[in-house]
Amino acid sequence: MPQATPRSSLLEARPSVFLLAGAFVTGMFLFAQGGCGGDECQDSADCREDRGPPASNTEWVCEDKRCEPHSVQVPPPDSGTDAGTPDAGRPDAGIPDAGTPDSGPSTVSVQVLAFNDFHGQLEEPAGQILAGVAPDGGPVRVNAGGVTYFARHIAALRAANPNTVVVAAGDLIGASPLLSGLFHDEPTVEAMNLIGLDLVAVGNHEFDEGSTELLRMQWGGCHPVDGCLDGDGFPGAKFKFLAANVATGVDRTLFPRYDVREFEGVKVAFIGMTLEATPESVTPTGVAGLTFKDEVQTVNALVPELRRQGIEAIIVVVHQGGIPTSGSLVNDCKGAGSDGRISGAIVGVAKGLNDAVDVIVSGHTHQAYNCVIDGKVVTSALSMGQLVTDIDLTLSKATGDVVEARANNVIVTRDVQEVGAVKELVTKYQELVEPRANRVIGWVSQTLRTQSDSVGQSTLGFVIADSQLEATKPANLGGAQVAFMNPGGMRADIAQGEVTYGEAFTTQPFGNSLVTLTLTGAQIEQLLEWQWRPSGATLMLLPSAGFTYAFSASAPVGSRVDPASIRINGVTVDPAANYRVTANSYLASGGDGVQVFAEGTNRLGGAVDSDALEAYLKAHSSQASPLPAPALNRITRLP
């Protein structure tokens, strides 16, 4: 297989296929609507249509209904991005000119559009993504995502090549916002049917409601308990779920192991699978009877089978990922790996896979990167539909081999026309969800606040930690003795008075599941000491009721906690003893840099965090007796 070349950034001088196709699609739409008249514009898509591609190192911006060029500076690719190709610094590197042999009758062009970790994000996600570097060195950030815009970008990219396959690398559903999650993610499946998704590899969150429910997502039918909440049935997915490493028995898998597509006589295989460690992050009953096999071994065992079918082009779509350097652009590959590239599990996977594999579409870590690892193109498209990875393959008609592979992470901007049918679907569920979001689930006697006191304690954090401890305290649900909440996992206060489901969901919108794991007393002390970083940053974890300790603010970092003060229900923690500790799945996997949690053993997945909070409020509050705010006395600050 030849050296694969990542394509240039969207913000570089060469207009991407998306920009050209997007301008065409948007222009046709405006033509049908009568256009915007004269030199006036409504968005940058109008400018691209009327003025053509922007000049080098610029991008069109519609200001006061007039098209203005704005300068955008993108740093040149480094060794982690260009994979050592001689011309990778050029905007058109690796792209055959018209009339070259690769574009002739001896080859066929195939486009793979990929994304990952959509998590039912139908509405526009909050925040912005880093799109480039301005001439003054400052960041260029843009709004991105929203399924109505996502649909338009997919359509525009698809228009560039009739040989297109749209794939997703897991967590399409699960841990979803209220708009999709309330309806058991049926809205997301229906939206993807409209968009034209072809294949999705299962991720760990696909199993949040169990394998039986996941099968319903594929085949349709109303929910066995809630029925069809939207009142018009559920047809199931028109796209295929793939699960090569999820076994239900000997030589049997939950979904097909791979799918083969043929383009002008050339076959391409797509192998889909999740991470082997899926059972560690979901409720055990949800994966009962299933075996999750090693990713590398699974793929390598399939290669001879595919070769016997005359298939040479192999793409792996896997819910496993890597970690780039903070602040990287969406097409970078920089990281803390030994070679200066991304780190994480996907690196070992890529290096272990048979060289017959040409492309790896990855996910799980919610990161953006565009790499070449061990001769294989390896990509990830952030999360929540904020990016689409455009992977262009040139295949030999004679051998079926991949002659060339190029990738480009395209930002899902909101300056394009929304797709009407998808917009109607979203509006329908917005109207349906409103009364359900207003359902009262409890009462609080005073506002529970995310804001902490001078020590780092917060009333909302304590209540959430208490709810997580209660949800995992029974022996069969984890046997937890203490729970910890991260302050960044709380997004809004809960106001005094009645608490609606929508309010509680807004407080914890991430849909993290609970994980109970074993730490020694010494590791718990290490966890507490971690809260003060050598850099001077502080991130105070919020413990559940019954857990107390004291720290000295003047002591050196790493020696601030008095081990004798660490107590669970008044009993001093024994450094050599084992304790069952609960955290949300973000923390439990090492989120916020808390590596001690990642070292925990005997992991057991549990309920979704928002469900645990709802159950707690229902059990401990009523209109006549609202839940009191907990006292801020679990952490003591000493001189």
Summarize the helices and strands and which ones pair or pack.
Elements: H1 17-33, H2 44-51, E1 58-63, E2 66-71, H3 79-82, E3 107-115, E4 129-133, E5 139-142, H4 147-159, E6 164-168, H5 178-181, H6 186-195, E7 199-201, H7 211-219, E8 240-242, E9 246-249, E10 252-253, E11 258-263, E12 266-274, E13 291-292, H8 295-308, E14 313-319, H9 345-352, E15 357-361, E16 368-373, E17 376-381, E18 387-396, E19 402-411, H10 420-437, E20 440-444, H11 459-472, E21 482-485, E22 497-500, H12 501-507, E23 513-520, H13 521-530, E24 542-543, E25 547-552, E26 567-568, E27 571-572, E28 578-584, H14 585-588, H15 595-598, E29 601-608, H16 609-620, E30 635-638
Parallel strand pairs: 3-6, 6-7, 7-8, 12-14, 14-15, 15-17, 21-28, 25-30
Antiparallel strand pairs: 1-2, 3-18, 4-5, 9-10, 9-13, 11-12, 16-17, 18-19, 20-22, 21-24, 23-28, 23-29, 25-26, 26-27
Helix pairs in contact: 1-2, 1-4, 6-10, 11-16
